[in-house]
Amino acid sequence: MTTAVSSLPLATIDLPDFNQLGVDELKQNVHSALQQAQQQIEQFPEQLHDAQQALELIFELDHVENQLQQRWGVLSHLNAVKNSAEIRQVYQDILPVLSDYYTQLGQHKGLYQAYQMVQASPAFTGLNPAQQAAINLAIRDFKLTGVALEGEAKARYGKISARLSELSSTFSNHVLDATQAWSMPLDDAQLQGLPESSIGLLKQLAEQHKQTGALATLDFPAYLAIMTYADDRNLRETFYRAYVTRASELGDPQFDNSELMQEILQLRQEMAELLGFKDYAEYSLASKMAPSVDEVKQFLLDLADKARVPAQKELAQLQQEASAHGIEQVAPWDTAYLAEKIKLREYKLSQEELKPYFPAPVVISGLFKIVERLYGIQIEEKQAPIWNSNVHYYEVSEYGEVIAGFYFDLFARSGKRGGAWMSGFRSRMKIRNAIQLPIAFMVGNFTPPVGNRPALLTHDELVTLFHEFGHGMHHLLTEADVIHVAGTHGVAWDAVELPSQFMEFWTWDEEALSLISRHFEREETLPSELLNALLAARYFQTGLQTLRQVEFALFDLNIHSTVPAPDTLQIQQILNEVRQQVAILPTVAYNRFQHSFSHIFAGGYAAGYYSYKWAEVLASDAFDRFEQEGLFNAETGKAFRDAVLAVGGSVDALTAFKNFRGREPQLDALLRHNGWSNGPDGSPASDSVSTAG
């Protein structure tokens, strides 16, 4: 287990045959891996001779875990991007079995003692940093999964874990089904204000649904087109209401997430108490970078204070624009529409004028050129089995040798979960006498190609692509050789957004924009007037956007630190209180945002949504070094790769940051990157908000 990584050859990449994978095979593959994993822990010896034997057994378990992660990863991925009744049923059937296995694993005293034996032995100092970190993190996680529980408490923990897995999956299914169940045909009058490309998208949606004319759905590209461009205010309100009441008691009752939210929070609280924590928020932060729930709340409130003055100015600007359009009071369904009008008037910036300069193939090619210059790698598209005709597969090479691979599945379609994400389907790890290479899925829901045109991206979509690719680089460029700390594994959740938010900065750089822009019909990059308009609008509504993120993060923390766990009505009351505390944009009584808040009810962000703002401090401060030394400085890029991307979870997040930056993180760069360089009230920026802890 102590073989030096540099002496091992890289394994060849073998990929799933998505063309041939049927539902029965998916099911059998996961069950087979689960059976092997369960046999492994059942056969784990009661008595261990020494630390070397313990190391060998841990190594064998890592191999079993590797197989299980990959096979479950394929099924989980297809359930998200190619959802069908058959795949969903298999996924739902396996979830409780998988949960039971991981509960057994996390509470296995013999295995826990094996890790402790290794940690306490002289052999521990001979392990490489990744192996040592994996041992230390495993011991922490045993404690957080109830290894010390006995009898009824132990059994109850297992039941809670299984039920939470089921509830989270059902929550996600309800959001997907509610989104896809709603659509509305539009006549020519309702299309007034929409640009040609948006009308083309809506007509294409009608064709796909075997209808004539134009059809709008709640899939985000169509929804955003209506909210941004439709002159018909009543139409915008209709779509807004449909969107914010998805999966709630105000929508289709079969998709209502009300009782699910309540039960999820109750079970999380019970789990936290079983493990000796005051509440679930405290339990969640036990494995994160932030020092305490109170300090995170204060960090968020301080950030809200800094954002409030610019946000109030932005709201006044919206209200002024509303008056010019005969709107007495700005409503939530007006904000995107009015914002587009302001950008067009104040900055001469039109998203519709920008989009032809951001065809997806050009953007992707430019993105690859940027990371190639930063990290000294090469990226090339390769032929591989895929699950949809719009999916592409690429391989990453260095010094002529393949080191990783990834898939892009970037466009919205029916049967695909909303949002954007990166999932590490296969991790880098030592396997026998070689190094297994990492593979990632990177998924988006961008506006798809319309007709014979390539997909034309908005700048917001471009930012999202760079964000997810930052996650991808974190997974793919790891040099840690142990599955539990390779890539994003083992990284504190409130630091995992550092590489993703860091990559977003290149979407605002003139040189980078020249690499990712070229008119889809004419061989010209972004003209100077559009470039200047885009850069001038960089800080547009950053105050309002910050308050919105703080609202989500505080709501998340508050519902997870309320004891006893809140019921459905109390969840709404907590959200209302948070809005009164930090929000300045008006809302409406029927808004049920929480019912589709999948990040915290069906994702990994429970009592952790604050991570986006926490990591933004790190990302801004890290990028500040590039601003000083050059955005394409290869030495600085190598330093970031070595200190942050390569180490994965083998070095704790704060140490990794300090290894790159040479000091503790500071807030100043974040304020400047939001356009508040001297503080929102003109006073010098303060670094009183710190992520050190």
UniProtKB/TrEMBL annotation:
What is the protein name stated in its UniProt record? oligopeptidase A
Similarity comment: family membership? Belongs to the peptidase M3 family.
Q: Which reaction does it catalyse?
A: Hydrolysis of oligopeptides, with broad specificity. Gly or Ala commonly occur as P1 or P1' residues, but more distant residues are also important, as is shown by the fact that Z-Gly-Pro-Gly-|-Gly-Pro-Ala is cleaved, but not Z-(Gly)(5)
Give the signal sequence positions. none
One GO MF term attached to the UniProt entry: metal ion binding
Which is a Gene Ontology cellular component entry for this protein?
A: cytosol
Q: Which UniProt keywords apply?
A: Coiled coil, Hydrolase, Metal-binding, Metalloprotease, Protease, Zinc
Its Enzyme Commission number(s) read 3.4.24.70
Q: Ranges for the Oligopeptidase A N-terminal domain? A: 32-154
Q: Give the Peptidase M3A/M3B catalytic domain ranges.
A: 226-675
Cofactor section: Zn(2+)
Q: Which CDD domains match?
A: M3A_DCP
Give the top-level enzyme category.
hydrolase
Q: Where is this region: Disordered?
A: 672-693
Task: State any GO BP term from the record.
Answer: peptide metabolic process
Pfam families (alphabetical):
Peptidase_M3, TOP_N
Would I find Protease among this entry's keywords? Answer: yes
Q: How is the cofactor bound?
A: Binds 1 zinc ion.
Q: Can you tell me which residues the record assigns to a coiled coil?
A: 23-54
The scientific name of the source species is: Alkanindiges hydrocarboniclasticus
The top of its lineage is: Bacteria, Pseudomonadati, Pseudomonadota, Gammaproteobacteria, Moraxellales
